[in-house]
Amino acid sequence: MSSVPESGKKARRIELRGIEKRFGDTPVIRGLDLDVRPGELLVLLGPSGCGKSTLLRLIAGLEHPTAGTVEIGGVVVNELPPAARDVAMVFQSYALYPHMTVAQNLGFGLKSRGLDKGDINRKVSATAQTLELADLLERRPGQLSGGQQQRVALGRALVREPGVFLLDEPLSNLDAGLRIKTRDEIASLHRRLGTTMVFVTHDQMEAMSLGQRIAILDRGTLQQIGTPEAIYHSPANLFVAGFIGTPAINRAALAPGGGGRLRWGPVEVARPWADGPGTLAVRPEGLSRAIGRAGDFVAEVTRVEALGSETIVHLALPPGLPSGGRGWTLRAGPSETFMTGESIEVGIDWNRCHLFDPTGVRWPDAPTPHKASS
User: Fold this and answer.
1) Quick one: CA torsion of 197, 50, 58, 224, rounded to 10 degrees?
2) Domains of the chain, start order
3) Residue 4 has what pLDDT?
4) Residue 27's pLDDT is what?
5) How far apart (Å, rounded) are the C-alpha atoms in residues 10 and 24?
6) Which residues of the chain have pLDDT under 70?
7) Are 312 and 305 in contact (CB under 8 A)?
8) From the centroid of its chain, how far is CA 302?
9) Residue 197 and residue 88: Cα distance in Å, rounded?
10) For position 230, what pLDDT does the model report?
């Protein structure tokens, strides 16, 4: 049985307090607080330019905060250099030394730290066994596949046995099939080691499949942090609701009606906030084709995506139901059949609807929408 580096025994907590980061006059991170639990795999998710990679570099010590504190393992590390922070970082680029073997690449950092040859060989051997690289130790990077090169890059961080792993979009250079395989390897590695990992990605599928919790950023601000299930089913605001989920969540503008109510075509709900319009949102699985009964509205099928395990039906809503210029989508089972151009009765699962106020904040205890009486 192969030995495994005991990183999990010294997994570190990361605490960020009041983090600000500006490049010149441009704010990149704005007043951010974040806790990463010891041994947790936390994913930082958001669109390009939201500040997630900058945040990772602040933890690593490659950037310094304009304001706020970074704590690792209960120690404020703002003034510590990267080498003194007990972190290891894996970058989007593998950055392997092409003239060195896999074994030499894995052991290079240990050699530069002055470890003796016996310790280096032991750690390299253990790491190679963990990442299934033992048969490749004498090869050079040019003789490896993309996935094997990525495992060597991971191994170069792992061999140091740090308290924190930082991974900056490490899968983005891989093709789709290899990305899924390597993603599974990272999840398995985390389960075995139990060390703290912070993983940056803009890919929501990566985030949902990997993260024990997900922290969603937009324009340098933390929008929501929670489990994948909580973020998907209980988004904090319209940005999170729209960013998570494929196909995207369906939206409708609710206009103020009489008696303190909000209305959108067939939908009516008591307004839970003081004044103004709102937004109704429902995910594609919250819609269904109404068979043998009247639906909540009629829509035209504009496109059908038969994906094998499910069918995605694209709908054009009638003129009286504004949808912000977007069509709606319905997620159906693979056995259901739809024809482009046909009109169908669509039912809404009212318990799956979300209400957002004029600022875009979701109201979790808002009244359940219902079909209007007229």
Assistant:
1) -50
2) 7-233 (3.40.50.300), 248-371 (2.40.50.140)
3) 35
4) 95
5) 37
6) 1-9, 324-325, 374
7) yes
8) 30
9) 10
10) 97
